[in-house]
Write a structure and sequence with these properties.
By secondary structure, the protein is α/β, with parallel strands linked by helices. It has 2 domains: 144 residues, Glycogen Phosphorylase B (Rossmann fold); 179 residues, Rossmann fold (3-Layer(aba) Sandwich), CATH 3.40.50. The protein is 36% helix and 16% strand. The chain contains 14 helices and 12 strands. The strands form 2 sheets. It has a 6-stranded parallel sheet, with helices on both faces. A 6-stranded parallel sheet has the order 9-8-7-10-11-12, sandwiched between helices. Helix 12 links the parallel strand 11 and strand 12.
C-alpha cells in the first residue's frame, strides 16, 4: 500500500501518479562518500514504495558497497568505455522504469537517465542538458528553505520535490556483508588485532588539502595506546607510503591494511570502537555503520560533507577565511595550512567526547 504523500514546500508543475509506479531507477555515478550519502534517499524510497522495484546505477568499482543493501532490489554497475555504457543504456531502456532520479548530475548520468526512457525523469534545473528531464527542482536551498544544505539533503530534496516524504531526513546506513565480515575477521586474527578494542584510522584522502599529516595520526595512535585502545590503519594499495610513514613515526604498535575490499572495510569499521580520519568516503562508511567518528576537515565544505549519522560524531577543523575551496591545490598559501593547523590535542579531546557518549 502506498504511503500518504505529505505536502512539500515546493511541488512540480506535473505531479506523478505514485499509485501506478512499479519501477524506480536511481542514478548515482560518483565516489564512495557520494554513494554512502545516497542511502538516505534509498531508504526514503523503500519506505514509500515497500513493494516497488528500486534499482541504483553505480560505477563498477564502488558498486560492491551496496550489494545486499536492503533498500534496493538491484545494484546495476557500469564500467568505463563506450561499449559498456551503451550495453548498460540498452539494459535500462528494456526495464521500462516509471521514474528515474539523477541524484548528482553530470553528462554521463544524464545520458543514462534519458536512456532509461522513464516516463518521469527528475533532476536539478542547473544540470547540463536539463531539457532531457521533465521534473526540475531549482535548488536544494529552495526546497529546504535555507542556504546551507548537506549532500544527503541535496539528494533527498529531489525526492521530496515530487512527493516522496523526506521531512524526517533519514540518516546514512550500510549493511554488513556476511562473507566480507568473515574475511575481515580472519585477517584480524592473522594480524593479532583485538577486535573488541581498537580504533580505526584512515590517514589518506583524495587531495593533500584534506590530508592531516601522518605524524599527527601517529600522535593519535600513541594517545589511544595510553587509553588502552589499539590502532588499526587502512589505506588503498596505491597509498601504502602513507601507512609506512605512519608506522615509522609512531612509537605505539599499529596494524595496517592496504588490501581490504569495500565490504571488508565496512565490516571492519562496524567493529571499531571509534573512527578517526580525514574527510573521505571511508569516514562516511564508518558513520553509516554507527561507529563513533572524529573527522578532521581542511579545505572541504563542512556543512555539506560532515558525517550524516545519529551515532556520536565530531568534526575538527581550523577556521580559515578561504574555506571551503575546490581542494585541488592551496592557492592562498601554497600549502594547505587549514588541515596542517589542526592540533592533535583537539582531536584527542574530540575522541574522548565521542567515546563518552
Amino acid at each position: 500500500m502506498i504511503a500518504e504523500v505529505k505536502t512539500t514546500r515546493t511541488r512540480p508543475s506535473d505531479n506523478i501518479d505514485w499509485t501506478t509506479t512499479q519501477r524506480v531507477l536511481v542514478v548515482k555515478l560518483r565516489s564512495i562518500g557520494d554513494t554512502v550519502l545516497a542511502t538516505p534517499s534509498l531508504i526514503a524510497l523503500r519506505r514509500f514504495f515497500p513493494h516497488a522495484r528500486i534499482d541504483i546505477l553505480l560505477e563498477d568499482w564502488v558498486a560492491p558497497l551496496l550489494i545486499g543493501f536492503d533498500a534496493v532490489d538491484n545494484v546495476i554497475s557500469v564500467r568505463k568505455g563506450a561499449g559498456n555504457r551503451l550495453r548498460t543504456a540498452f539494459e535500462l531502456a528494456r526495464t521500462r522504469y516509471d521514474v528515474a532520479f539523477n541524484l548528482h548530475g553530470g553528462t554521463t548520468a544524464t545520458f543514462f537517465t534519458a536512456a532509461s526512457r522513464a516516463q518521469h525523469r527528475v533532476g536539478y534545473a542547473h544540470y547540463q542538458y536539463s531539457f532531457l528531464y521533465n521534473h526540475l527542482l531549482s535548488s536544494a536551498s529552495d526546497f529546504w528553505q535555507r542556504q546551507q544544505t548537506h549532500s544527503a539533503e541535496h539528494q533527498l530534496a529531489l525526492l521530496g520535490y515530487v512527493g516522496v516524504p523526506v521531512d524526517d531526513r533519514p540518516k546514512t546506513r550500510l549493511n554488513i556483508n556476511a562473507a566480507a565480515g568473515a574475511d575481515v575477521s580472519t585477517a584480524c586474527v592473522s594480524a593479532r588485532v583485538d577486535v573488541d578494542n581498537f580504533a580505526l584510522l584512515h590517514p589518506s584522502t583524495a587531495f593533500h588539502t584534506k590530508q592531516w599529516p601522518a605524524e599527527n595520526f601517529a600522535r593519535t595512535a600513541e594517545y589511544l595506546a595510553k587509553q588502552g585502545i589499539a590502532s588499526v590503519a587502512i589505506a588503498a594499495k596505491n597509498e601504502t607510503t602513507i601507512l609506512n610513514d605512519l608506522r615509522n613515526a609512531c612509537s605505539a604498535p599499529i596494524k595496517t591494511f592496504d588490501d581490504l575490499t569495500l565490504g571488508e572495510i565496512t565490516a571492519l569499521a562496524a567493529q571499531a570502537k571509534v573512527f578517526i580520519g580525514n574527510d573521505s568516503g571511508i569516514a562516511h562508511i564508518a558513520a553509516a555503520v554507527q561507529t563513533p567518528t572524529v573527522v578532521i576537515f581542511g579545505s572541504s565544505n563542512r556543512d555539506h560533507w560532515r558525517p550524516w549519522t545519529d551515532a556520536p560524531n565530531e568534526i575538527v577543523y581550523q577556521e580559515f577565511h578561504c574555506q571551503p575551496c575546490a581542494g585541488y591545490e592551496c592557492k592562498e598559501f601554497g600549502e594547505p595550512r587549514c588541515i596542517q593547523s589542526v592540533q592533535a590535542e583537539r582531536v584527542f579531546a574530540a575522541i574522548d567526547r565521542v567515546l563518552k557518549r
